[in-house]
Amino acid sequence: MKLELYLLNCYGINQLIKEFDFRKSVANNGVHSLYAPNGTLKTSLAKTFKDIEAEKETKDLIFPQRETKRDIKVNGQPIIKDQVMVIDSYDESYSSKQLSTLLVNESLKQQYDEALKEVDDKRALLVKDLAKSSGKQAKSVPEIVCQAFNRPEKELLELLSELFAKENENFSSFNGFKYGDLFSPKVLELASTDGFGQDLADYVETYDKLISESAVLSRTFNHQKASVISKSLSDTGFFTASHSVNLSVRGERQEVTSKKHLDEILQEEQNKVFHNPELKEKFSKLDKKLTTKETQEFRDLISENQALFPEYKDVNKFKQKIVISYLQTHQSAWEDLVTIYQSNKHIVKNIIDQAKQQETTWRSVIETFNMRFSVPFKLSVDNQDEVILSDAAPVIRFVFDDGRDTSDQVSHQSLLSVLSQGEKRALYILNVLFEIEVRTKAGTPTLIVIDDIADSFDYKNKYAIVEYLRDIAKVPHFNLLLLTHNFDFHRIVGSRIIGSKGTGARDRRLLASKTATNIQLNTEKYQNDVFNAWKRGMHQNELYMLASIPFVRNLAEYCGRHAHYEKLTSLLHLKQDSKSITVEDLQTIYRSMFSDNPKLTLPNSTDCVIDTLFISSDALSNAANESPELESKVIVAMSIRLKAEEFMISKINNQAFLDTIKFNQTRELFDKFVELFPSETLSICLLDQVNLMTPENIHLNSFMYEPILDMSAHRLYGLYNEIKQLMV
């Protein structure tokens, strides 16, 4: 993959033009590592790629009036959101949106789908029929069915089987009513109030009394059941076949030979009940409480169907009757579903049991994470079977273990409140790994932009992250662009992942530098140990020779070579012998310390080392290159300190005081200068900058030259020239 960047005024990136070659080979996994000092590029570039991922416009936040251009191409074509993934340094709220994908065992899912294919088809048909009868959307039907019988939705099929097996009353008289009309939230809320409940109880009591006094009806044979019988007899052709029924009216038999005659008798008895003055009074009390806008439709419905009122005495029971009435209306579809379900039930149960025990990709990610990171929490999924089989969202549980033989389940928020910053970052990385694993399975070519993922980690976890990056880099369709302001991490990635073999390996380790007009991404000069490069070339490069002084001084100190240590210290701090030390003296020390090169010959052996330092620093500051190599910055930093000490020693002019200084000479001189010359604020300010900018740069080892890499070359040049002016 080739990535072309042309960015102009993108979140502070003034201009960046660069082409990256991510093509992979046997010796190259296409990883690029970009080291960018703070304020140079890193965050702005990550934001720009995040805009692509989020399909947002990029802009310059500080100077929005400036023209912004964002032209990013992959293999000559404009990059699209699916081709990029940005991993932020840390995002406490981040979680993988595709975690359920990792919990699915595809083989088991396929078995389950095949076993339930016929069941699902029958289920879909019944749900569609129930949706028509109830007036609800099909997706809501399982909920209202299961809710009526206080069962979870995942038990829908089992519930339908149980209901089918029962001897249910015939509730077909209810099948003309829509569920939403009968059980609107406002009506249910009203029915639950004490006042309405008492009035409803009074109404039902009066209604039951009138029914029991009816010449035809009774509590068990009320007008609803009577109307069902009338309709059933008519629908089956009972009367047209010259059959008749006998009704017991006040103990006397009355033959009925037609539906019309039967309905007239039943209607007359119903009118006697509902036109009864006492019942009408009870109804009036209830009716007055149904005058709000939210209950108006229900009031209209109930006015025409007063017989429904008694059902609200037990709303849950009424819901069950309504659901059964819908099922009875579609008896054939109901029976088909139950029959198919029962025949496949044992197969399905076996698959569900397997799903609960499945070892999925999710678990392998967790186990690898636990091996590489030490964290006091473990993750589990409560509903793995539902995720695998029913496309449910995973319910993640966290178990915290404080190392005292006890553990407890905690919420995500509670977990975050007790974890250390490093542990929080580890949890974040775990979620990132879930997302990475999903994208690995998806197989989509992706540029993964990683913004300082190892920031603030200790070395153990930093190396754990490097191992993950190595794994990710090996995925054929992934290309990694690592952005960091941690030079040590940049070096680790360079040595452990990018390496030095293969075509273009050097070009994949980059350093960013910023000027007023653009940002340059330059190949890192020292691909391996910088000190080896200096050591090999110091016989013909004065800059290498001079920059090695702090490092060789460290070696002399560690090896107990006291005389060499003292001599080299006189080249970092101004001592009585400092200006008499020649390159030949330096050559003698280097030959002694570098035992593998006893015949080392340094250039210009009679020259004074400190004079050579100052001449080199003058040349570097006059050239004013924005991004000099490490040796150049070290030399300028050394000269700054020596010039500063030269100025302070001349001003203090007290040899007895100088003789008392054993350690921290620059700081001791500075404190004395401030004491003697408190009014020289400009000089004090400059000398204070010397203390801030140079100490770690001069005591040089592999862990401590990062600060000088981060430091702007122009800041060093400027300070050097200002310190020189103090001597004028």
What do you see in this structure?
- The chain is of the alpha/beta class.
- The chain folds into 4 domains: 2-103 and 361-523, P-loop containing nucleotide triphosphate hydrolases (Rossmann fold, 3-Layer(aba) Sandwich), CATH 3.40.50; 107-174 and 331-354, no CATH class; 179-304, no CATH class; 530-726, no CATH class.
- Helix content is 54%, strand content 11%.
- It is built from 33 helices and 15 strands.
- Strands 6-12-13-3-14-15 form a 6-stranded mixed β-sheet, with helices on both faces.
- Strand 12, helix 19 and strand 13 form a beta-alpha-beta unit.
- The radius of gyration is 43 Å and the shape is elongated.
Beta-strand percentage? 5-15%
Shape by Cα distribution: elongated
CATH topology of the largest domain: Rossmann fold
Strand line-up in the sheet with most strands = 6-12-13-3-14-15
Mean of all residue-level pLDDT scores: 82
Number of E strands: 15
- CATH architecture heading of the largest domain: 3-Layer(aba) Sandwich
What's the Cα radius of gyration?
A: 43 Å
List the main descriptive attributes of the protein structure presented here.
Rossmann fold; elongated; alpha/beta; single chain; 728 residues; 4-stranded antiparallel β-sheet; 33 helices; 4 domains; 11% strand; 54% helix; 6-stranded mixed β-sheet
Protein topology:
Elements (H helix, E strand, L loop, with lengths): L1 E9 L2 E9 L10 E4 L6 H12 L15 E6 L2 E2 L5 E4 L11 H4 L3 H29 L6 H8 L7 H10 L13 H4 L2 H7 L2 H19 L10 H13 L9 E5 L2 E5 L2 H16 L2 H12 L7 H9 L10 H15 L1 H26 L4 H12 L4 E5 L2 H7 L5 E6 L5 E4 L1 H7 L2 H22 L3 E6 L7 H15 L4 E7 L2 H12 L10 E6 L4 E5 L6 H8 L4 H6 L1 H11 L2 H8 L13 H11 L15 H15 L6 H23 L2 H6 L4 H12 L4 H13 L1 H4 L7 H5 L2 H14 L2
Parallel strand pairs: 3-13, 3-14, 6-12, 12-13
Antiparallel strand pairs: 1-2, 1-4, 4-5, 7-8, 9-10, 10-11, 14-15
